[in-house]
Amino acid sequence: MSRRELERRLMKFVAGMRTEAHRPLAIGLETALFEEGIVNSLRILDLIAFVEEVTGTRVPDASVRLENFRSVRAIAAAFGGDCEDVMGNVARGEEPIRVFARHSGRAGYARPVEALAARGEIDLVTSGRASFRGAARRLLERFDTIARRWAVEAGALEQVVPARLPRDVLARAGCPAGRSALGESLVPPAVCYHVYHEREGARLDGSPIVVTLRGRCLRDEESFDLAGGRLRDFEMREIVILGSREDVERFRQEMVDRVAGLVSELDLEGRLEIASDPFFLQGAGDEARSRRLMQQVLPLKLELRLPLDRGHLCAVASFNHHLDFFGRRFRIRLASGATAHTGCVAFGLERWTLAFLARHGTDDSAWPISVRESLSQEVEA
Asked: What does the alpha-carbon distance between residue 332 and residue 172 come to, in Å, rounded to a whole number?
């Protein structure tokens, strides 16, 4: 099918996807389908199915990228006529959004877990949890202090939450119970779920709500590898925002910039990447696939990946935009009556600590002076 014919058919199909909220919008060939909310996680599979039907060609999930689906014109250019180019390059890897390089000559990639264990400064719990002591623990608390300060500067409220959430709340959040889950209340895989539960049915007063909280998380990991950052039970600091799409994206970019500055200040190396794993810990089925593709196409989840033991890259922070998923599930609305968008920035405290130690070693006298001074000030206080 020619590109022009595909454009014609797509324009008719997309016009039928509009809801009442979109009627004033004049849809053209260059209209941003995802950014304008015309295509969402409920309709993305319909759009893909239509493209496959009229072109007679299967669209691989790896081809569902923003550059291929941003507008009617982009879809027609990617899949109309001779679409061999886009089909032949679906396996190419995503380029990192930002690369951080070391600016000193000091070699990295120490084995901090072995050194901490030899000094008695780490306990490995069989449940998949690590407990730090001494300088490593002070370092972990320092990373939490930094993230909490950023939250306060963004106007965040501090929320203290229980260790567990009811099973039905996590089910509504799209988070099925894992193999190890027992009882009617569970330790959640991310602490931000507490925020949506606490504000169920809320209506914002016109300004975004920012909340920060720290808690334990439990994930049903296949393996436990502390050196590689794979923990089943770990501590997380999150900063959560509820507001408009623009509020969430503005906040997310601010946090990306703050974290990038910290990585540079600490002379760490790593990569900011589009995440390949889904934020929503859902099971199988069309709804699961649609949410994963929406995350991929926009992209909705970014990860900061730093080297741990022997240079193994591990995500130490994530920057997430959930669109209106949690707003719909928990009936959270803007002052206008529209469903609220949500986002969160998550910091894995054990992973941050191990990444720093893998770069700078476990001898705190050799750590960057800014870190040593901040830790000594906290001890004196």
From this structure: 13
Residue 229 belongs to domain spanning: 98-380
Residue 159: which residues within 8 A CB-CB, separation 6 or more?
A: 194, 195, 198, 211, 212, 213
Query: What contacts 129, CB < 8 A, 6 or more positions away?
Result: 231, 232, 233, 234
CATH at residue 350:
3.30.930.10
Domain-located, residue 266: yes
Alpha-carbon gap, residue 350 to 371, rounded angstroms: 17
Answer yes or no: do 237 and 317 share one domain: yes
- In the three-class reduction of DSSP (H, G, I as helix; E, B as strand; rest coil), residue 366 is classed as helix
Do both 28 and 168 map to the same domain? no
Half-sphere exposure of 26 (CA within 13 A, CB side): 0
pTM of the model: 0.82
Per-residue pLDDT 10s for the chain (381 aa) are 788 999 999 999 998 886 544 445 678 999 988 878 788 777 888 999 999 999 988 898 888 888 899 999 999 999 987 555 554 444 344 578 888 887 776 667 778 898 999 999 998 876 788 899 999 999 999 999 999 999 999 999 999 999 999 999 998 888 765 544 556 899 999 999 999 999 999 999 989 999 999 999 998 766 678 888 888 899 999 999 999 999 999 999 999 999 999 999 999 999 999 886 666 545 557 777 777 788 777 788 899 999 998 788 999 999 999 888 899 999 999 999 999 999 999 999 999 999 999 999 988 888 888 898 888 776 454
3-state secondary structure of 214: strand
The total of structural domains in the chain comes to: 2
271 with 184, same domain: the answer is yes
Same-domain check for residues 132 and 191: yes
Contact status, residue 228 vs residue 351, Cβ threshold 8 Å: no
Q: Which residue has 């209106």 as its token pair?
A: 324
The answer to whether residues 113 and 314 touch, using CB atoms and an 8 Å cutoff, is no
In one letter, which amino acid is 340? A
Q: How far apart are CA 309 and CA 288, in angstroms?
A: 33
Q: Closest Cα to residue 60, out of 31, 83, 38?
A: 83
Please report where in the chains the tokens 């999150």 appear, as a residue: 238
Flag whether 201 is in a domain: yes
